[in-house]
């Protein structure tokens, strides 16, 4: 078997294609979030997030199974083309001053549906175009480029939004998705079909059960998923209310919101770059053990720092992003190394669905509670709860062993 080079044509095209789409995607997301923040209410922001969350949870149950049955290249290209159409509609409505909440909610829901299909397709494709020993580097490079362009997108988007308004960034978003789709058409991703593929509901349900059975027999992974589902509820208010925090608590405009988002992504980028050269799971397993606690401590200053020291939160956001990146990439790589390629999609799809299970309710509830409770109070409760959860994680041997990969040789193979 010939060894594949990490920077082979297929990986580079996949990498560059997503880099291009992320530039417009980030600027577009800032435009939509800030539009709701300034033109509507925190409740409307919560509803939009809830709609997207519901779509993600429902569709995520089937996405992974479909990804394993269909040609992953086609899924990736079609998803970007659909995003092009969705954001072109949003851009047109914004230009004509017809961007209403029903239009936004509908487009947001369809965009999430596409994203839910796209994520498992990307995760399942990387192991097919790079060698197993290069997975950590490949995942790190993919995440680092994603973080890099998002940093640029948030900073430029935050500043440019105050100068040019929402329509320009929505149009930019649609164009970048089209460019990304064109570049992805030239990718070759291995795809074997024994017979003509027929998508049947019973077969999809069966595949979902296979994904569930694999995860359930992997006790460490199953425990992490339940833990993630509960802890994600605590993270939702912090990031959902961030534009409101910047505008009404700190008294700044979209520029500073862009800086906060860029700071978090700078941390993601640094974490990805570190993992591209250092195997943290092997050399520094104790760091992974305390990741959640560190993240909670980094978020605590949001509610405690005086307003005139707000810029110190940018530093803690960088640290939070760095630690979160190291944790997530290490876990993803551990799963990729111990899962059969033909079942990769359904496993990642099932994991995403479970981990996001309570998000829609939390998003809708956050928008409602924020009408009556100060954002700093909500931040204090959430960050302290994350710290407590981090301590619980550190002393759970099953979860720590799964993230560090110390039990990868004993993982069960999913039954066919």
Helix content class? over 70%
Task: Determine the CATH superfamily of the largest domain.
Answer: MFS general substrate transporter like domains
CATH architecture title of the largest domain:
Up-down Bundle
**What best-fitting shape do the alpha-carbon axes yield?**
globular
| Number of E-type strands | 0
CATH fold field value of the largest domain: Growth Hormone, Chain: A
CATH class of the largest domain: Mainly Alpha
Structural class: mainly alpha
Low-confidence blocks of residues: 408-416
- Number of DSSP helices? 19
Explain how this protein is built:
The protein is built from 19 helices and no strands. The chain folds into two domains: 9-186, MFS general substrate transporter like domains (Growth Hormone, Chain: A), CATH 1.20.1250; 201-404, Growth Hormone, Chain: A (Up-down Bundle). Helix content is 79%, strand content 0%. The model is unreliable at 408-416 (pLDDT under 50). The protein is globular and about 50 Å long. The chain starts with 8 loop residues before the first helix and ends in a 12-residue tail after the last helix. It has 416 residues and is mainly alpha-helical. Helix 5 runs antiparallel to helix 10 (254-275) and helix 13 runs antiparallel to helix 18.
């Amino acid at each position: 078997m010939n060894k594949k080079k990490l920077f082979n044509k297929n990986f580079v095209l996949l990498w560059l294609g997503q880099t291009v789409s992320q530039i417009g995607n980030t600027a577009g997301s800032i435009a939509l979030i800030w539009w709701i923040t300034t033109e509507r209410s925190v409740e409307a922001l919560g509803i939009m997030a809830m709609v997207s969350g519901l779509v993600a949870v429902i569709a995520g149950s089937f996405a992974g199974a479909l990804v394993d049955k269909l040609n992953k290249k086609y899924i990736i290209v079609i998803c970007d083309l659909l995003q092009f159409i969705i954001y072109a509609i949003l851009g047109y409505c914004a230009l004509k001053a017809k961007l209403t909440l029903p239009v936004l909610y509908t487009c947001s829901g369809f965009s999430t549906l596409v994203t839910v299909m796209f994520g498992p397709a990307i995760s399942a494709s990387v192991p097919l175009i790079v060698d197993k020993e290069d997975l950590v580097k490949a995942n790190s490079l993919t995440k680092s480029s994603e973080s890099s362009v998002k940093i640029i997108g948030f900073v430029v988007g935050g500043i440019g939004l105050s100068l040019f308004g929402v329509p320009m960034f929505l149009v930019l978003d649609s164009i970048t998705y089209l460019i990304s789709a064109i570049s992805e058409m030239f990718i070759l991703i291995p795809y074997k079909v024994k017979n003509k593929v027929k998508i049947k509901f019973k077969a999809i349900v069966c595949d979902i059960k296979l994904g569930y059975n694999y995860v359930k027999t992997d006790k460490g992974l199953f425990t992490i998923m339940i833990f993630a589902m509960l802890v994600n509820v605590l993270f939702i208010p912090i990031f959902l209310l961030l534009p409101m925090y910047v505008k009404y608590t700190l008294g700044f405009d979209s520029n500073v919101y862009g800086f906060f988002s860029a700071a978090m992504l700078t941390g993601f980028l640094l974490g990805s770059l570190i993992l591209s050269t250092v195997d943290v799971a092997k050399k520094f397993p104790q760091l992974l053990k305390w990741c959640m606690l560190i993240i909670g401590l980094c978020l605590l200053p949001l509610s405690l720092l005086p307003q005139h020291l707000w810029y110190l939160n940018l530093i803690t956001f960088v640290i939070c992003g760095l630690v979160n990146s190291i944790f997530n990439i290490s876990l993803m790589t551990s799963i990729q190394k111990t899962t059969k390629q033909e079942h990769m999609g359904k496993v990642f799809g099932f994991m995403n669905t479970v981990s996001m299970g309570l998000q829609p309710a939390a998003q809708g509830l956050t928008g409602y509670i924020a009408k009556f409770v100060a954002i700093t109070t909500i931040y204090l409760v959430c960050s302290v709860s994350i710290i407590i959860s981090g301590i619980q994680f550190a002393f759970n041997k099953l979860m720590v062993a799964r993230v560090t990969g110390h039990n990868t040789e004993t993982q069960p193979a999913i039954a066919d």
